[in-house]
Amino acid sequence: MNAVLKPVPGETVLSVARANTYYGETQVLFDVSLNVGAGEVVALLGPNGAGKTTTLRTILGLTPARSGSVDFDGRDITRAPTHEIARTGIGWVPDDRRIFPTLTVARNLAIARKKTRFRSWNEKECFEIFSALEYLMHRECENLSGGEMQMVAISRALIGAPGLVLFDEPSQGLAPKVVQDVMKTILRLKKEGISVLVVEQNVETALAVADRAYVMNLGTVVHEGPADVLRNDAALRRRLLGV
Ligand SMILES: Nc1ncnc2c1ncn2[C@@H]1O[C@H](COP(=O)(O)OP(=O)(O)OP(=O)(O)O)[C@@H](O)[C@H]1O
C-alpha cells in the first residue's frame, strides 16, 4: 500500500458548510454544516425525512446545494458534476445498491475501477473482506441476495479508490450477521485511513462503530458530538432520536 496517498490523520477531508438544498422550490436542507476528519467514522442520524439522504446527495452533486459549500480533499466540489466528484475519491454505497442487475458481479466491479489520488483496491483484497464474493463473480447480480448485493456495492466503492465512503442505510434489510460484517468492514476502512460518513436508522449499530455523530431533524443539524456521548446518554438519545 502506498502510505504517501493516505490522508494525514486529524485533517478535515470533507467539509459541508451552511448548505441549503432544495427539491424544486421546496427547501429541505437549512444551513447544514458537518465535517469528516481523515480516517474518521462519522454517523449521520435522525428520523425519517430529516434530510440525511439529501445531505449525501448534496455531497455527491446529485442535488447540489443552492448556497453554502462542500469541500473535499482541499477542493471545492459544491457545483462539480457527480462523475467528477467520484474521481476526487468519494465512494458511495447507496441504500438501493444501484448495481446493474443484468451484468455479472465481475463486470459490475470492473466498470467501477477508476484512478483517484487515493489507493485503489483490487478484487483479491475485496475477497479477503468478503470471502463469498470470489464464488459469486460469474453470477448475474439480479440473482443475488440482499447481503450479497451489499458486498458487491461495498467492493465496487473500494475498487473506485475512495478516500471517503458515504454509506446510506447499509444495514437496511440485512440479517443481523450481515449487518455485523458490514460494520466490521467500516472499521476495516477506518484502519486503512479511509474516512466514512454513514447514514443509519439503526442508531445502536451506527454508534457502535462511529467516532462522532450528527443528528438531523427537519433539515437541520440539531446535535453534534462524540459518538460516546450519545452511546452513554439514554435520555439524550431518546430526546433526539426517540430510541
Ligand atoms: N426527490 C424528491 N423530491 C421532493 N422531495 C423530496 C425528494 N426526496 C426527498 N424529499 C423530501 O426531502 C425531505 C428529506 O428527505 P431525505 O430522504 O433526505 O430524508 P432522510 O433523513 O434520508 O429520511 P429517510 O430515512 O426516510 O430516507 C423529506 O421531507 C422528503 O419528503
Automatic annotation (TrEMBL):
One of its GO terms (biological process) is L-amino acid transport. Keywords: Amino-acid transport, ATP-binding, Cell membrane, Membrane, Nucleotide-binding, Transport. It comes from the Bacteria. GO terms for molecular function: ATP binding; ATP hydrolysis activity; branched-chain amino acid transmembrane transporter activity. SMART domains: AAA (SM00382). Belongs to the ABC transporter superfamily. This is ABC transporter ATP-binding protein. It comes from Caenimonas sedimenti. The lineage of its organism: Bacteria, Pseudomonadati, Pseudomonadota, Betaproteobacteria, Burkholderiales.
